[in-house]
Amino acid sequence: MPLYKRHYDEICEVKGVARLDPDYQRYLEMDASGRLLTVTVRDKGKLIGYFKAVVESSLHYRSATYGITDIYFVDKEYRGTGVGGRLFKFVINEMKERGVNVFFCAYKSKHEHNNMFERLGFIEIERSYMMVLEDQK
Prior knowledge:
Strand content: 15-25%
CATH topology: Aminopeptidase
Shape: globular
Helix content: 25-40%
Number of strands: 4
CATH architecture: 3-Layer(aba) Sandwich
Number of domains: 1
CATH class: Alpha Beta
Strand order of the largest sheet: 1-2-3-4
Distance between the termini: 26 Å
Radius of gyration: 16 Å
Low-confidence stretches: none
Number of helices: 4
Order of helices and strands: HHEEEHEH
């Protein structure tokens, strides 16, 4: 099973509302405009993790460039081995290279890994809540 499908099966909280259907064209357009950061992690060629973020100026603070995480995932088999920390260290350096001033990242409550974020220098700034308003027909 492809890694992105395993990611969806394990993490998605809104399966009744949103089926897995990536907007590849939009990703390609964002990438072509320099607004998408994509990083992959491989073990002997096998995809074991990935990270995607939107990079753009802030709507509220025009002088700031934000890196806003879209998705990230590390295969279960590689969790707890340091792969996630190495992935994020690489991403942080890429964000700096792109002129990002503020990097936002979140995780699903049932997959807490705030210790890794705190070790990397992130600080907790808010909590998010979700409400499903309509089931998929």
